[in-house]
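Format notes (please read before filing issues)

Several people have asked whether sequences and structure tokens are stored in separate files. They are not. Every record keeps both together, in the order shown below: the sequence lines, then the token lines. Line labels are part of the format and must not be stripped during preprocessing.
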Amino acid sequence: MPIRDKTRVVEILPRSFVEFMQLVDQKIDRNDPDTMIESDDLIQCAHAFGGLVDAAEGVYGFEFVQEQDEDLNEEYEGFSSDRLTVSWHYLLTREQIRAIGRIEQTTIPMWRCSKDCGRRATSEDWYCPECDFPP
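Then the structure lines:
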């Protein structure tokens, strides 16, 4: 599937994601098994899920789901809700999780689609189901 060009942006980390990273940081410190087994969903809360995606590199992946701004929703017709939900995808090291959880890091470089659909990712080569889908 084609991956269209992305634009680099710096985003303020959402408060609920920071709170989730605080919990993840504590779980890692306690050597919770959920943080030591490769998985994409062993660590969860109401608006986010993820896990250790690369044990050799110590990389964790998380998907954070949030409601989209109403002004962006105007572009999308046919949805039953007045508000869309979109995902932000994070690939983070242990050090980044700790810095976010301890509020030492409050922003993060991310990539968004050229047509700003609201989705974000920390990796430039991520696939957006809305914008990268063939026309």
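For reference, the curators noted about this record: Helices lie at 15-29, 70-73, 94-101. The two ends are 11 Å apart (CA to CA).
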